[in-house]
Amino acid sequence: MTRILEDVLPVGTPWGGPESRRYLSSFASMLMRIEEARGDERELHAEHERTYHLYLAVSGIGVSTVWNERLEPCSHEEVVERFFPDYVDRTMAFAGLRCADVPRDVLREDRERTQRRVAASIDRGWPVLARSTAAEWSVVAGYDRDGEVLVGWDGAHTYWGAPAVAPDGYLESGMFATASWPDALSRLVIPEARTAPRRDAVAVIAHMAATLTEQREAGYDGKLRGRLADERFFRAATRDRLESLWHYTNGWVGWYAENRCFTGFALGEILPAMEGARGDEEAARCLARAAGRMSHTHDLCWEAWRTMRVRHRCDLREEEPCRMCGGCLRPPVGEDIEALRDGVRRARLLGYLRIVDANDAAMLRELRECSRPGRQAAGRSGRPPDGQHGIAAPPSDAAREEPAP
Fold first, then answer.
1. Which has the closest alpha carbon to 220: 82, 373, 370?
2. Which residues of the chain register pLDDT less than 70?
3. What distance in Å separates the CA atoms of residue 210 and residue 223, rounded to the nearest whole number?
4. pLDDT of 207
5. In the beta sheet, which residues pair with residue 131?
6. Which backbone phi and psi does 57 adopt, to 5 degrees?
7. Would you report the helix, strand and coil content of the chain in percent, each value rounded to 5?
8. SS3 146
9. Which residues lie closer than 8 Å to 306 by C-beta, 6 or more apart?
10. What's the pLDDT tens digit per position in 80-120?
11. Residue 279 φ/ψ region, left for φ over 0, alpha for ψ in the -120 to 50 degree band, beta for the rest
12. What is residue 385's predicted lDDT score, i.e. its pLDDT?
Protein backbone atom coordinates (compact mmCIF):
# COMPACT_ATOMS: atom_id res chain seq x y z
CA MET A 1 0.00 0.00 0.00
CA THR A 2 1.15 3.55 -0.78
CA ARG A 3 0.11 6.82 0.87
CA ILE A 4 1.71 10.24 0.36
CA LEU A 5 0.51 13.50 1.92
CA GLU A 6 1.01 15.67 -1.14
CA ASP A 7 0.23 18.93 0.67
CA VAL A 8 3.08 18.74 3.21
CA LEU A 9 5.28 21.73 2.48
CA PRO A 10 8.95 21.16 1.53
CA VAL A 11 11.59 22.01 4.13
CA GLY A 12 14.36 24.56 3.76
CA THR A 13 12.00 27.06 2.08
CA PRO A 14 12.87 26.36 -1.58
CA TRP A 15 10.61 29.35 -2.38
CA GLY A 16 12.94 31.76 -0.57
CA GLY A 17 14.38 31.36 2.86
CA PRO A 18 16.60 30.64 4.49
CA GLU A 19 15.51 28.26 7.24
CA SER A 20 18.79 26.70 8.28
CA ARG A 21 17.72 24.89 11.45
CA ARG A 22 16.61 21.62 9.95
CA TYR A 23 14.53 20.42 12.87
CA LEU A 24 12.50 23.63 13.06
CA SER A 25 11.85 23.74 9.31
CA SER A 26 10.75 20.09 9.33
CA PHE A 27 8.67 20.73 12.45
CA ALA A 28 6.90 23.65 10.74
CA SER A 29 5.93 21.43 7.79
CA MET A 30 4.65 18.72 10.12
CA LEU A 31 2.71 21.12 12.34
CA MET A 32 1.02 22.96 9.49
CA ARG A 33 -0.27 19.67 8.08
CA ILE A 34 -1.54 18.53 11.48
CA GLU A 35 -3.28 21.87 12.01
CA GLU A 36 -4.67 21.72 8.46
CA ALA A 37 -3.31 25.11 7.42
CA ARG A 38 -5.23 26.60 4.53
CA GLY A 39 -4.48 29.33 1.99
CA ASP A 40 -2.96 29.95 -1.39
CA GLU A 41 0.67 29.14 -2.06
CA ARG A 42 1.94 32.55 -1.00
CA GLU A 43 -0.05 32.47 2.24
CA LEU A 44 1.14 28.97 3.11
CA HIS A 45 4.75 29.90 2.49
CA ALA A 46 4.38 32.96 4.71
CA GLU A 47 2.80 30.83 7.45
CA HIS A 48 5.65 28.31 7.24
CA GLU A 49 8.19 31.09 7.72
CA ARG A 50 6.18 32.61 10.56
CA THR A 51 6.01 29.22 12.30
CA TYR A 52 9.75 28.79 11.89
CA HIS A 53 10.37 32.25 13.39
CA LEU A 54 8.11 31.58 16.37
CA TYR A 55 9.71 28.25 17.22
CA LEU A 56 13.22 29.69 16.97
CA ALA A 57 12.09 31.73 19.98
CA VAL A 58 10.15 28.93 21.68
CA SER A 59 13.11 26.54 21.53
CA GLY A 60 15.63 29.19 22.58
CA ILE A 61 17.80 28.28 19.59
CA GLY A 62 17.35 31.77 18.14
CA VAL A 63 19.31 33.42 20.95
CA SER A 64 22.06 30.82 21.29
CA THR A 65 25.57 30.76 19.89
CA VAL A 66 27.90 28.42 17.99
CA TRP A 67 30.66 26.85 20.00
CA ASN A 68 33.18 24.07 20.19
CA GLU A 69 36.37 23.95 22.24
CA ARG A 70 38.69 23.82 19.22
CA LEU A 71 37.22 26.84 17.43
CA GLU A 72 36.94 24.66 14.34
CA PRO A 73 34.04 24.20 11.90
CA CYS A 74 31.29 22.08 13.38
CA SER A 75 27.84 20.79 12.51
CA HIS A 76 25.29 23.37 13.57
CA GLU A 77 22.77 20.57 14.04
CA GLU A 78 25.10 19.09 16.64
CA VAL A 79 25.31 22.51 18.31
CA VAL A 80 21.53 22.37 18.74
CA GLU A 81 21.77 18.87 20.23
CA ARG A 82 24.47 19.99 22.67
CA PHE A 83 22.83 23.13 24.01
CA PHE A 84 19.13 22.18 23.77
CA PRO A 85 18.52 18.59 24.85
CA ASP A 86 14.83 19.40 25.40
CA TYR A 87 14.13 21.19 22.10
CA VAL A 88 11.79 18.47 20.81
CA ASP A 89 9.80 18.25 24.05
CA ARG A 90 9.61 22.03 24.39
CA THR A 91 8.36 22.69 20.85
CA MET A 92 5.87 19.82 20.97
CA ALA A 93 4.44 20.99 24.31
CA PHE A 94 4.06 24.54 23.03
CA ALA A 95 2.25 23.27 19.93
CA GLY A 96 0.01 20.98 21.96
CA LEU A 97 1.27 17.61 20.74
CA ARG A 98 2.19 14.40 22.51
CA CYS A 99 4.70 12.36 20.56
CA ALA A 100 6.41 9.00 20.71
CA ASP A 101 10.19 9.25 20.52
CA VAL A 102 11.56 6.14 18.80
CA PRO A 103 15.35 5.80 19.28
CA ARG A 104 17.73 4.07 16.92
CA ASP A 105 17.92 0.76 18.77
CA VAL A 106 14.14 0.39 18.82
CA LEU A 107 13.53 1.29 15.18
CA ARG A 108 16.25 -1.13 14.08
CA GLU A 109 15.27 -4.03 16.34
CA ASP A 110 11.55 -3.81 15.63
CA ARG A 111 11.36 -2.52 12.07
CA GLU A 112 7.94 -3.98 11.31
CA ARG A 113 6.27 -2.39 14.33
CA THR A 114 7.95 0.95 13.56
CA GLN A 115 6.70 0.73 9.96
CA ARG A 116 3.17 0.20 11.21
CA ARG A 117 3.40 3.15 13.58
CA VAL A 118 4.72 5.47 10.86
CA ALA A 119 2.11 4.27 8.37
CA ALA A 120 -0.67 4.75 10.93
CA SER A 121 0.44 8.35 11.54
CA ILE A 122 0.54 9.09 7.81
CA ASP A 123 -2.87 7.46 7.33
CA ARG A 124 -4.17 9.80 10.01
CA GLY A 125 -2.75 12.72 8.03
CA TRP A 126 0.07 13.46 10.48
CA PRO A 127 3.66 13.58 9.14
CA VAL A 128 6.55 12.13 11.14
CA LEU A 129 9.91 13.71 11.95
CA ALA A 130 13.12 11.77 11.24
CA ARG A 131 16.66 12.45 12.42
CA SER A 132 19.59 10.91 10.55
CA THR A 133 22.76 9.55 12.10
CA ALA A 134 24.37 12.84 11.01
CA ALA A 135 21.88 14.79 13.21
CA GLU A 136 20.02 16.10 10.13
CA TRP A 137 16.23 16.26 10.41
CA SER A 138 13.65 15.71 7.69
CA VAL A 139 9.88 15.26 7.52
CA VAL A 140 8.34 11.94 6.47
CA ALA A 141 5.18 12.69 4.47
CA GLY A 142 4.38 9.26 3.05
CA TYR A 143 5.25 5.64 2.59
CA ASP A 144 5.30 2.86 0.02
CA ARG A 145 5.06 -0.91 0.38
CA ASP A 146 3.20 -0.59 3.69
CA GLY A 147 5.96 1.48 5.25
CA GLU A 148 8.98 -0.43 4.02
CA VAL A 149 9.87 2.69 1.99
CA LEU A 150 9.61 6.11 3.63
CA VAL A 151 8.94 9.21 1.53
CA GLY A 152 9.40 12.84 2.51
CA TRP A 153 11.28 16.12 2.31
CA ASP A 154 14.93 16.54 3.34
CA GLY A 155 15.85 19.91 1.80
CA ALA A 156 18.24 18.38 -0.72
CA HIS A 157 16.86 20.62 -3.47
CA THR A 158 17.25 23.82 -1.46
CA TYR A 159 20.40 25.65 -0.42
CA TRP A 160 20.83 22.90 2.21
CA GLY A 161 22.18 20.61 -0.49
CA ALA A 162 22.44 16.85 -0.28
CA PRO A 163 22.18 15.45 3.26
CA ALA A 164 25.15 13.71 4.86
CA VAL A 165 23.23 10.42 4.87
CA ALA A 166 21.76 10.19 1.38
CA PRO A 167 18.44 8.40 0.80
CA ASP A 168 18.06 5.66 -1.80
CA GLY A 169 16.75 8.16 -4.35
CA TYR A 170 14.41 11.03 -5.15
CA LEU A 171 10.99 11.10 -6.79
CA GLU A 172 10.07 13.50 -9.58
CA SER A 173 8.40 15.73 -6.99
CA GLY A 174 11.72 16.17 -5.19
CA MET A 175 10.72 13.98 -2.25
CA PHE A 176 13.20 11.41 -1.02
CA ALA A 177 12.33 7.72 -0.99
CA THR A 178 14.33 5.26 1.07
CA ALA A 179 14.06 1.69 2.26
CA SER A 180 17.36 1.88 4.14
CA TRP A 181 15.96 4.13 6.86
CA PRO A 182 16.62 1.68 9.74
CA ASP A 183 20.35 2.11 9.15
CA ALA A 184 20.24 5.80 8.20
CA LEU A 185 18.09 7.12 11.05
CA SER A 186 18.95 7.74 14.67
CA ARG A 187 15.50 8.82 15.81
CA LEU A 188 11.85 9.06 14.76
CA VAL A 189 9.36 11.41 16.41
CA ILE A 190 5.78 10.25 15.81
CA PRO A 191 2.92 12.58 16.81
CA GLU A 192 0.24 10.64 18.69
CA ALA A 193 -2.29 13.02 20.25
CA ARG A 194 -3.28 16.63 20.74
CA THR A 195 -2.83 18.16 24.19
CA ALA A 196 -3.62 21.55 25.68
CA PRO A 197 -0.95 23.80 24.09
CA ARG A 198 1.35 25.67 26.48
CA ARG A 199 1.36 28.88 24.50
CA ASP A 200 2.25 31.58 26.98
CA ALA A 201 4.61 34.39 26.04
CA VAL A 202 6.19 34.67 29.47
CA ALA A 203 7.53 31.09 29.38
CA VAL A 204 9.07 31.70 25.96
CA ILE A 205 10.66 34.98 27.01
CA ALA A 206 11.97 33.52 30.28
CA HIS A 207 13.50 30.56 28.44
CA MET A 208 15.27 32.87 25.98
CA ALA A 209 16.60 34.96 28.88
CA ALA A 210 17.84 31.82 30.65
CA THR A 211 19.54 30.59 27.47
CA LEU A 212 21.31 33.91 26.92
CA THR A 213 22.34 34.10 30.57
CA GLU A 214 23.82 30.60 30.62
CA GLN A 215 25.79 31.05 27.40
CA ARG A 216 27.04 34.53 28.23
CA GLU A 217 28.22 33.38 31.66
CA ALA A 218 30.11 30.54 29.96
CA GLY A 219 31.92 33.11 27.82
CA TYR A 220 31.74 31.11 24.59
CA ASP A 221 31.81 34.09 22.25
CA GLY A 222 34.58 35.77 24.24
CA LYS A 223 36.87 32.88 23.34
CA LEU A 224 36.40 33.55 19.61
CA ARG A 225 37.05 37.26 20.07
CA GLY A 226 40.13 36.42 22.14
CA ARG A 227 41.47 34.22 19.36
CA LEU A 228 40.90 36.91 16.72
CA ALA A 229 42.77 39.41 18.89
CA ASP A 230 45.76 37.07 19.43
CA GLU A 231 48.45 38.41 17.10
CA ARG A 232 50.88 35.66 18.06
CA PHE A 233 48.43 33.00 16.89
CA PHE A 234 48.15 34.58 13.44
CA ARG A 235 51.90 35.00 13.05
CA ALA A 236 52.46 31.30 13.78
CA ALA A 237 49.29 29.73 12.32
CA THR A 238 49.64 27.28 9.46
CA ARG A 239 47.45 27.73 6.41
CA ASP A 240 45.25 24.82 7.52
CA ARG A 241 44.66 26.30 10.98
CA LEU A 242 43.96 29.68 9.45
CA GLU A 243 41.44 28.22 7.04
CA SER A 244 39.77 26.26 9.83
CA LEU A 245 39.35 29.42 11.93
CA TRP A 246 38.04 31.33 8.90
CA HIS A 247 35.30 28.75 8.34
CA TYR A 248 34.43 28.62 12.03
CA THR A 249 34.10 32.40 12.16
CA ASN A 250 32.11 32.43 8.94
CA GLY A 251 29.69 29.87 10.39
CA TRP A 252 29.40 31.89 13.61
CA VAL A 253 28.50 35.02 11.64
CA GLY A 254 25.93 33.11 9.59
CA TRP A 255 24.34 31.62 12.70
CA TYR A 256 23.90 35.07 14.25
CA ALA A 257 22.77 36.73 11.02
CA GLU A 258 19.90 34.33 10.43
CA ASN A 259 18.86 33.30 13.94
CA ARG A 260 18.86 36.78 15.47
CA CYS A 261 17.04 38.26 12.48
CA PHE A 262 14.24 35.68 12.42
CA THR A 263 13.89 35.57 16.21
CA GLY A 264 13.55 39.34 16.08
CA PHE A 265 10.50 38.88 13.86
CA ALA A 266 8.99 36.64 16.54
CA LEU A 267 9.69 39.16 19.29
CA GLY A 268 8.45 42.14 17.36
CA GLU A 269 5.46 40.68 15.54
CA ILE A 270 4.30 37.39 17.08
CA LEU A 271 4.90 37.26 20.84
CA PRO A 272 3.22 40.61 21.65
CA ALA A 273 -0.09 39.20 20.37
CA MET A 274 0.16 35.98 22.38
CA GLU A 275 -1.51 35.07 25.65
CA GLY A 276 0.55 36.53 28.48
CA ALA A 277 1.69 39.59 26.54
CA ARG A 278 -1.44 40.63 24.67
CA GLY A 279 -2.50 44.13 25.73
CA ASP A 280 0.69 44.69 27.73
CA GLU A 281 2.07 47.91 26.26
CA GLU A 282 5.29 47.90 28.25
CA ALA A 283 6.02 44.29 27.29
CA ALA A 284 5.45 45.21 23.65
CA ARG A 285 7.95 48.05 23.98
CA CYS A 286 10.53 45.78 25.64
CA LEU A 287 10.13 43.18 22.92
CA ALA A 288 10.33 45.82 20.19
CA ARG A 289 13.62 47.10 21.61
CA ALA A 290 15.00 43.55 21.79
CA ALA A 291 13.84 42.92 18.21
CA GLY A 292 15.59 46.11 17.10
CA ARG A 293 18.84 44.85 18.61
CA MET A 294 18.45 41.60 16.71
CA SER A 295 17.85 43.42 13.44
CA HIS A 296 20.96 45.52 14.04
CA THR A 297 22.95 42.34 14.71
CA HIS A 298 21.79 40.93 11.37
CA ASP A 299 23.04 44.04 9.56
CA LEU A 300 26.38 43.93 11.39
CA CYS A 301 26.85 40.30 10.40
CA TRP A 302 26.56 41.21 6.72
CA GLU A 303 29.27 43.82 7.22
CA ALA A 304 31.38 41.21 9.00
CA TRP A 305 30.96 38.90 6.00
CA ARG A 306 32.18 41.66 3.71
CA THR A 307 35.21 42.17 5.96
CA MET A 308 36.09 38.48 5.70
CA ARG A 309 36.38 38.63 1.89
CA VAL A 310 39.00 40.74 0.19
CA ARG A 311 37.17 41.46 -3.04
CA HIS A 312 33.57 42.11 -3.92
CA ARG A 313 32.48 39.19 -6.12
CA CYS A 314 28.82 39.22 -7.04
CA ASP A 315 26.51 40.64 -9.67
CA LEU A 316 26.41 44.13 -8.17
CA ARG A 317 28.82 46.88 -9.12
CA GLU A 318 31.83 47.25 -6.84
CA GLU A 319 30.55 50.46 -5.29
CA GLU A 320 27.12 49.04 -4.45
CA PRO A 321 26.56 47.54 -0.99
CA CYS A 322 26.30 43.77 -1.03
CA ARG A 323 22.99 43.16 0.74
CA MET A 324 21.25 39.79 0.50
CA CYS A 325 22.63 39.20 -2.99
CA GLY A 326 24.66 36.10 -2.22
CA GLY A 327 28.00 37.76 -2.89
CA CYS A 328 28.93 37.66 0.76
CA LEU A 329 28.15 33.96 0.93
CA ARG A 330 30.48 32.79 -1.82
CA PRO A 331 33.20 30.26 -0.92
CA PRO A 332 36.48 31.86 0.18
CA VAL A 333 39.57 31.97 -2.00
CA GLY A 334 43.17 31.96 -0.87
CA GLU A 335 43.44 35.70 -0.39
CA ASP A 336 40.40 35.69 1.88
CA ILE A 337 42.00 33.11 4.17
CA GLU A 338 45.37 34.87 4.28
CA ALA A 339 43.68 38.22 4.97
CA LEU A 340 42.96 37.02 8.51
CA ARG A 341 46.64 37.69 9.25
CA ASP A 342 45.97 41.38 8.66
CA GLY A 343 45.56 42.97 12.09
CA VAL A 344 43.69 45.97 10.72
CA ARG A 345 41.11 43.76 8.98
CA ARG A 346 40.71 41.60 12.10
CA ALA A 347 40.25 44.72 14.24
CA ARG A 348 37.38 45.77 12.00
CA LEU A 349 35.86 42.29 12.24
CA LEU A 350 36.30 42.31 16.02
CA GLY A 351 34.56 45.66 16.19
CA TYR A 352 31.46 44.15 14.61
CA LEU A 353 31.55 41.12 16.92
CA ARG A 354 31.86 43.33 20.00
CA ILE A 355 28.79 45.32 18.99
CA VAL A 356 26.94 42.03 18.45
CA ASP A 357 27.93 41.11 22.00
CA ALA A 358 26.69 44.48 23.30
CA ASN A 359 23.41 43.94 21.45
CA ASP A 360 22.99 40.56 23.14
CA ALA A 361 23.64 42.14 26.55
CA ALA A 362 21.02 44.84 25.93
CA MET A 363 18.58 42.27 24.54
CA LEU A 364 19.01 40.15 27.67
CA ARG A 365 18.08 43.11 29.86
CA GLU A 366 14.89 43.61 27.88
CA LEU A 367 13.96 39.92 28.05
CA ARG A 368 14.56 39.84 31.80
CA GLU A 369 12.39 42.89 32.27
CA CYS A 370 9.61 41.30 30.23
CA SER A 371 9.65 38.10 32.26
CA ARG A 372 10.34 39.58 35.72
CA PRO A 373 7.92 38.07 38.26
CA GLY A 374 5.37 40.58 39.46
CA ARG A 375 6.23 43.10 36.78
CA GLN A 376 3.34 45.41 36.05
CA ALA A 377 2.69 46.63 32.56
CA ALA A 378 2.73 50.38 32.98
CA GLY A 379 1.06 52.51 30.34
CA ARG A 380 2.22 56.00 29.51
CA SER A 381 0.55 57.24 32.67
CA GLY A 382 2.72 54.87 34.73
CA ARG A 383 -0.29 52.77 35.78
CA PRO A 384 -1.25 49.34 34.50
CA PRO A 385 -3.56 49.84 31.49
CA ASP A 386 -7.19 48.82 32.01
CA GLY A 387 -6.37 47.37 35.40
CA GLN A 388 -4.30 44.54 33.89
CA HIS A 389 -1.18 43.26 35.60
CA GLY A 390 1.69 42.51 33.26
CA ILE A 391 2.53 39.12 31.84
CA ALA A 392 0.66 36.19 33.30
CA ALA A 393 2.34 33.26 35.00
CA PRO A 394 3.02 30.24 32.80
CA PRO A 395 0.39 27.50 32.82
CA SER A 396 0.81 24.39 34.92
CA ASP A 397 2.33 21.27 33.39
CA ALA A 398 -0.99 19.46 33.60
CA ALA A 399 -2.46 19.25 30.11
CA ARG A 400 -5.63 17.49 29.03
CA GLU A 401 -4.93 15.26 26.06
CA GLU A 402 -7.32 15.06 23.17
CA PRO A 403 -7.35 11.89 21.06
CA ALA A 404 -6.15 12.19 17.51
CA PRO A 405 -8.90 12.37 14.90
1. 82
2. 312-330, 374-405
3. 20
4. 96
5. 137, 187
6. -75, -45
7. 55, 10, 35
8. helix
9. 312, 322, 328
10. 988 999 999 999 999 999 999 999 999 999 999 999 999 99
11. left
12. 35
